[in-house]
Amino acid sequence: MLSFSSKITYFIFIAGAFVVVSFAALNYQALNADMYFVLYLLLVFLLLFGIFVASHTSKPLKKIVKTAHELAEGNIHSRAYVRNNDEVGQLAGLLNKIGEKLEKANYEKATIHQAVSAKVNAIVGPLHETIEALEEKAKNRTIEFHKANEVAQKMQIDLLLKEAELVDLKGELAKLMKRKNKKVTREQA
User: Fold this and answer.
1) pLDDT exceeds 70 at position 75
2) φ/ψ of residue 44, rounded to 5
3) At residue 142, does pLDDT exceed 90?
4) CA separation (Å) from 14 to 19, 20, 47?
5) Highest mean pLDDT range out of 54-63, 107-116, 177-186?
6) Which pLDDT value is given to residue 153?
7) Is residue 113 part of a domain?
8) Structural domain tally of the chain?
9) Across residues 165-169, what is the average pLDDT?
10) Is residue 21 part of a domain?
11) Beta carbons of 114 and 107 less than 8 angstroms apart
């Protein structure tokens, strides 16, 4: 695939060669070695002229294409500096305006993001403090609950021991009562 500058060079050379060959064909009988040399120099001149025009024309376009690629890749600070006052210069100016608008939009987006972040932090900050205080209270209540549960378990164990002791005492009391009843019955008999 030919580049833009190659295409321009090609078309200038072909158009010029056509004109030169047409003039040569009109005076074909009058051509001599000197005329062939002049025709050869004219073709070389056309080739060099085509290269010069193509280079001069494609250089600003290459800058514009490079800037467009950079903008497309996210470099919103990229600009195409072209001095032409023709359509190519206007295209570069429009591309620069697009870059400026992208940059402005990016700045506005960042500013809005900062403002929203500040508002969210102002609203959420006290909520974080409240949540932290509630978490601390819950932690303290949990510790208190575990301590109370330990005390309740110890009291339950003590209660079971006291119940066992009470059962033993009831058993001894029952034995003593039996002995007393036997003694009282023996004394009455």
Assistant:
1) yes
2) -65, -45
3) yes
4) 9, 10, 9
5) 107-116
6) 93
7) no
8) 1
9) 91
10) yes
11) no
30-47 average pLDDT score = 81
> Does some domain include residue 32?
yes
- Nearest residue to 62 (alpha-carbon basis) of 84, 37, 33: 84
What confidence tens digit (pLDDT) does each residue in 129-138 have? 888 999 999 9
pTM of model > 0.70: no
Structural contact between residues 98 and 71, judged by C-beta atoms closer than 8 angstroms: yes
User: CB count, 10 Å around CB of 161?
Assistant: 10
Other residues' Cβ atoms within 10 Å of the Cβ of residue 106: 13
Percent of the chain with pLDDT over 90: 34
In a domain, 126, yes or no: no
- Is 60 in contact with 89 (CB distance < 8 Å)? yes
Degrees, nearest 5: CA angle 10-11-13: 65
- The three-state secondary structure class of 27 is coil
Query: What is the DSSP secondary-structure string of 54-108?
Result: HHHHHHHHHHHHHHHHHHHTT-TT--------SHHHHHHHHHHHHHHHHHHHHHH
* Domain carrying residue 31: 4-75
Contact 10, 2 (CB under 8 A): yes
Place of tokens 């007393």: 180
Amino acid at 9: T
